[in-house]
Amino acid sequence: MSATLYAQAIGMCSAVLLLSAVLLVWRRAQAAALPLMSLQGLALAALVGVLGIEAGSPELLALALLVLVFKGIVLPLVLVRSSRGERGGAPLINTATSLIAMAGLTALAYAVSAPLAALGSGPTVQAIPVGIALVLYGFLLLVTGRHAIVQLVGFLVIDNGTSTVAFLSSGGVPIIVELGVVLDVLLVILILYVLTGRIRDEFGATDLDDLTELRD
Amino acid sequence: MDLLLIAPLALCLALGIATVMLQRAWLNRYAGVLAASVVLVSGVAISAQVLSGRTLTALDGLLRADALTAFMLTIVGAVGLTATWGGLAAWGTTRRRAFAYPSLLVAFLLAMSLAVLADNLGILWVAIEATTITTAFLVGHHKTRTALEAAWKYVILGSVGVAIALLGIVLLYSATVATGDPTLSWTALMQPGLGLDPGLVKMAAGLTLLGFATKAGLAPMHSWLPDAHSQAPAEVSGLMSGVLLSVAFYGILRVQAITDAVIGPSLMRGLLIAGALLSIAEAGALILRQRDLKRMLAYSSIEHMGIIALAAAIGGPLAIGAALLHMLGHGLAKSSIFVVSGRILAVDGTTRIADLRSLLSRRPGIAVPFLAAMAALLGMPPFVLFFTELAIVIAGFQRGLGWVTAAAVTLLLIAFIGLARHTGDMMFGTSSSEADEEPVDRSWHGPRVPLIAALGVTAVAGFLVGPVSTLLAQAAHVLGGGQ
């Protein structure tokens, strides 16, 4: 792969990652979450694939396949199953405010990424702030979402952001750790899926405003 | 290859699988006790090996045991045994039906053992995340609305918090990639002259501390803790408060040792002092106006994690040794008192402080161990927490953190007053007239031996010298406390 093509591919994948996260925060509708999460998973898989081809590493290509199946297909499906038949609750802040907040968070992501310059100045390092921005967007979703599904999406976006940073900064953590992380995330999502079902049975909806019995 | 390191993990795994496959009543009942015993025996055996001057490794260095590991594994086993054995009494009622309960309990102990045995920050992270996974349904076990709410908050905040730690670990890894020798092994990361980039390590350390602090229950990331610890069944509360918090803090200690070697102690010290003072202050304020017994105990755990964080900030062999001993003493006393509060809930049907009166005259079999455990938690002599808190205060003044230590002691007084007042109300407070007609209930309402053993150890641990203090000194040395 030529250097220009490589840089363009990295930039393209990061752009799709960022765009899908922006749309997730903007749209908020349950129906939009599935294709957007799926798109984000595909972009991450493509990113890992590009890194794998560039490095000529079969390990990374296998990981790209794992990410594709896991984040592109399995997790969005679990998500859509846990949100069946529900409309998204109104978020705490309106769309305009959340878009402004996202602009601020993106600037923040670039600001806090300054120490990462120590890793060099290649196209991968320049794209790392995208991963940090994803993590921050995930927090925005978690904090402002009043709905169980939105918090679930927020958790997934944070995890995607962390993976993006991992692959861009170091070509991925050691394989045994990566597998452990993937397994952990899958189990957490399944647990949240079961809990969402129980909350719906118990409270009639998955509106988290009902979860206020425990307080001091 | 040291089988001693693999044994506790393999045996717990086998036990967990056997529990699920066989579904025998006796195995379900005793699975947690068996697993905790395995961990305790391994912890003591590994401690003996370490004391004879060996450092054990297994699986290509993925598992490794030094003095700190050996001591932490012993704490996991000892506190686990207290909680699971003491919690056996509640078995007959609801737990028999929940088929996954015993295997999740075993998996929880397995995850904590893996966390302290791994010589790899990535595996440590995976294991700590696994503790959230295994305890999620244990917290929500009672399936009430409040238990469900607690479980949801616990899983979301716990996994998001720990996800921040993963980001930090990833950055630390990328810093080692930049030096051409990628590693997540903390033994390798502790080597001098690695040439890690200070800016990157600073960012990584802050994120990792923030993430693990969520799991360790340090303010301001503690908001899930009182909910989860008050809604879980008694022995799970005991395990979570008594030892899970300490295992998460163990992660902080390892990261602190790595960071201090690269960028000096000021960053971690500052963050830990902030966390410690906030935790102690918040816990004190909320204990004072607490209405529920189990929530009060949960806030007391936040207070004790604050004390341990203060000791970690102070550093040095005295403070670190005291912090580790504090983890043991607090774990044993807290798991005992949670087990007793489970018995109170079983016989009196409530944990509302206002509804619990004159326990000492009505139910001495429950009140006496409760009082003993509370005295230990309050830091009364002869219990070990008295000596560790004293040692931490002395170390604080010795190492130039006098003002911080004095502030912490003042804040601790508030928590002390709150706990003592509520305990006095529950033990001696005058009750409504109906209580006078009941005959005095001398039953312990469950196994006595684990409570007597745990509180006995807490009472004498302060006087132990010889092997234990050698182990503690070595553990402090592992963390760079020798300097």
Supply the key terms.
heterodimer, A: 216 residues, mainly alpha, 7 helices, B: 483 residues, two-stranded antiparallel ribbon, 2 strands
What is the compact description of this entry?
By secondary structure, chain A is an all-alpha fold. Helix content of chain A is 78%, strand content 0%.
Walkthrough of the structure:
- The complex is a heterodimer of chains A (216) and B (483).
- Chain A has 216 residues and is mainly α.
- Chain A has seven helices and no strands.
- By secondary structure, chain B is mainly α.
- The longest helix of chain B is centred in the middle third of the chain and has 34 residues, at 145-178.
- Chain B is globular and about 75 Å long.
- At the A-B interface, helix 5, helix 6 and helix 7 of A face helix 5, helix 6, helix 8 and helix 9 of B.
Largest sheet of chain A: none
Order of helices and strands of chain A: HHHHHHH
Low-pLDDT parts of chain A are: none
Mean pLDDT of chain A: 87
Give the count of structural domains of chain B. 1
Strand content of chain A: under 5%
Indicate the percent of residues in helices of chain B: over 70%
Give the strand line-up of the largest sheet of chain B. 1-2
Using only C-alpha atoms, the radius of gyration of chain B works out to 21 Å
How much helicity do the residues of chain A have? over 70%
Question: Secondary structure elements and their pairing?
Answer:
The complex is a heterodimer of chains A (216) and B (483).
Chain A: H1 3-27, H2 30-55, H3 58-82, H4 95-112, H5 123-144, H6 148-170, H7 175-203
Chain B: H1 3-22, H2 25-51, E1 56-58, E2 63-65, H3 67-86, H4 101-117, H5 121-139, H6 145-178, H7 186-189, H8 198-216, H9 225-231, H10 234-263, H11 266-288, H12 293-314, H13 316-348, H14 359-362, H15 364-377, H16 384-398, H17 402-428, H18 434-437, H19 449-460, H20 467-478
